[in-house]
Amino acid sequence: MSTPTPTSATTATSAAPTSNAGAAGGLLTRGQLTALLIVALAVAWWLLPEFTVVVMSYIGLYSIVAIGLVMLTGVGGMTSFGQAAFVGMGAYATAWVCTSPGAVSTLSGLVGMGGLPWVGLVLGLVLTFAVAWALGSVTLKLSGHYLPLCTIAWSLSLYYLFGNMEFLGGQTGITGIPPLTIAGYSLADPRLLGVVIWAVLLASLWLMHNLLDSREGRAIRALKGGRVMAESMGVDTARYRIKLFVLAALLAAISGWLYAHMQRFVNPTPFNLNIGIEYLFMAVVGGAGHLWGAVLGATVITLLKQKLQDVLPGLLGTSGNFEVVVFGLLMILVLQRFAEGMWPTLQRLSSRLLRPGKVAEPRNVATLEQRALPAAGTVILEARDVTKRFGGLVANNQVSMSVKAGEVHALIGPNGAGKSTFFNMISGVDDPTEGEVRLMGQVMGKNPSRAFAALGLGRTFQHVRLLGQRSVVENVALGAHQRAHKGWLASMLRLDRGEEAALLAEARRQIERCGLGEFADMPAASLALGQQRIVEIARALAGQPAVLLLDEPAAGLRHLEKRALAELLKQLRAEGLGILVVEHDMEFVMNLADRITVLEFGTVIATGTPSEIQTNQRVLDAYLGGADDLAAGITK
Ligand code: ADP
Ligand code: MG
């Protein structure tokens, strides 16, 4: 079956980058509305009929799993069909601890009968952590469809494992699971357990919201912007993907633990692949990139399924699993109508009635890591006899060049000369077949691009790689990723506010410096392409680089913008940065560069000052053989 990919479903300018964007005239802020709804639910909870309470509890359980999928699929761009299996692990772990005679007799002496479910929770989390980590490290390195396929396989095998394990009760499952007790207080009443379920749900929403609204959250979002981009910003993408996968699995396991103590028995059925697919539906239908979309999706799908099971047999005059068919058709309809899921639509409607909230000022703004730039004239980046072969094609042939602190070095050459390939060699995106690259005097070998970033290499991309939906500020702040260090847990618990404020302030400073101050809070995709290139420069600068690599920065800029860019680069050069620029605009290059290196068919054919290059016969021949406009530019 094909699942809709939430990654491609979003349009450039529609979603507001921050949650508090809205009309000024509303009565409440979004935060106040959320608080009000929670209070209303808390009051109504004691008045609702028992049946409604149970349905609400199920919605809560499903939502917890779906939140994990929103993080994994909607935000991180990885698809898992296997979340139900992790729910099963959480459920079976506690069921086994609480009912197996061996476990009970050993453990109850230590923790008491009331402590068993908590041991079950720990066991479930530990097992899930181990399995998810192992599974993630095997599959997440591979690209494309391996993860979804692997989660399907994993989901199927665990389902049969549950069904065939004697000590887990086989197909019949495990009965007699005790209710949860908290401080000696039994939660056998569904109404009480429901409170715990919703408390866990709300806490998860809060923690995930905080995580996304942080340095680590930006790094997680960057996973979707492509590996090369994220790694160049210093993000260890393989590690982040595994951590995200584990996080989603742990949320599923917690849901399973609660489920086991609500249902009081477990069997394999609710943990099969079908349910895994349903969880994915919930996340996607609600709005794959939005945490509250998970709750919306879980609610809609739970209620819909229930209605269909009631109504269809009467309509069709026969019973059977027809709801599955209708369900599938409805799903297609919903996704046709709301490609981004339903939450963004709801958000747009509601933002007319809400007023923007205030962002709290942090008390202690932290200081970011600072890098001391090397003295002007120091060689920062050096390539020695770099050769790159793609099969029989020699894209770079023994290219040697260097970039010094305080100079602009331009790399020019006709299309296909090997400039972008060389860029990849000296930024760690790809490794040379022969030769070596040194950055800050260190031989870089096969180091990944985040190691280059750590040593002070900042770069932009020929094809702009920004997160179009996110604001310019957020995009630029990603560039400062390696200058701060608070981790996932600190972010979830809001212990990163001082550091986060410093990162955002640094991002705004760089945006101002690049002349884009008025666009700082707009979605990056709403800017003109030329401006997006400048945003990439600001992002690189936020990392406080010693050397800056720019791949065609002037492409798509108007005359005045080009002049402003040249001024900016001159200023950076005066501050001591080394700049390597690939550029087709010869006027721009000749006015700016201190040195120029010319590539043709992967080989350096000339190096020198602009005036030397302009009179070099070999260069003129190369360009005359190629694009005429370049030749015109060169001789201008
Ligand atoms: P430029 O940026 O100067 O236009 P490139 O570095 O993109 O040139 O390309 C140089 C040559 O290497 C071209 O002939 C291109 O087709 C080839 N090339 C680039 N990348 C690859 C690759 N990943 N696999 C095979 N050939 C490639
Ligand atoms: Mg190129």
Textual characterization of the structure:
The protein has 636 residues and is of the alpha/beta class. Helix content is 55%, strand content 10%. It has helices at residues 30-44, 50-75, 83-99, 101-111, 116-139, 146-164, 190-212, 215-222, 227-232, 237-263, 273-287, 291-316, 322-337, 342-351, 419-427, 449-454, 472-478, 488-492, 497-513, 529-542, 559-575, 586-592, 610-614, 617-625, 628-635, and strands at residues 181-182, 185-186, 379-390, 393-404, 408-412, 434-439, 442-443, 457-459, 547-551, 578-582, 595-600, 603-608. Strands 8-9-10-5-11-12 form a 6-stranded mixed beta sheet, with helices on both faces. Helix 5 (116-139) packs antiparallel against helix 10 (237-263) and helix 17 (472-478) crosses helix 20. The longest helix is centred in the middle third of the chain and has 27 residues, at 237-263. The protein is elongated, with a radius of gyration of 29 Å. The termini are far apart. The protein binds adenosine-5'-diphosphate and magnesium ion. Magnesium ion binds next to helix 15.
Give every kind of bound small molecule, once each: adenosine-5'-diphosphate, magnesium ion
Output the radius of gyration: 29 Å
Number of strands: 12
Termini separation comes to: 59 Å
What's the overall geometry? elongated
> What percent of residues are in strands?
5-15%
